[in-house]
Amino acid sequence: EWARHDPRRLFGIDITAKSVELTEQKLRLFGFQPQVRVADAEDLPFGDATFDIVYSWGVLHHTPETERAIREVRRVLRPGGRASIMIYHHPSLIGWMLWTRYGLCAGKPLTPWSRIYCEKLESPGTKAYSVAAAKEMFGDFSSVTTMTVLSPGDMLEGAAGQRHQGTMLTVARRLWPRGFLRRYFSSCGLFLLIEARA
Fold first, then answer.
1. Report field, pTM of the whole predicted structure over 0.70
2. Residue 62: DSSP 8-state
């Protein structure tokens, strides 16, 4: 979709060569000349004030130094440029579910939330941030707005959470009060959407 908007000025990065290769193949299938390269979000290979928009969905909370990656986003944005970023949010419904299973029910109720997210949410090292912590990370931007969104994992929908199997999860999927949660707990979504202006 980004390529359809303005393919001449689209650049993409990923930390792995395989992901770059697959993205290039897909863009070529749609008739685009890909400008994708292997790079580290914590050390972007672009000059200062290069881009009007920087977009990242569910990536920067996996980097070892997320704060450094956010500083790099700010550095490569032109004055007035926009960052559209999604990072994981805490507290979230899925965080509570994981803590209940791997903390409380495992007899380890004092397990830190950060450890639960790091070891049980996705890949090792995954982090989640409060709205206040996210705003602090984006402190060098001129304006920051945030919104939390319930994820498929929070709603126990689709294939989310497939690595966490068991009777409890099967029962929960059938009985999960999705309408109630959407109405009263939308602020406890896993997805924290951030719009920031340079």
1. yes
2. G
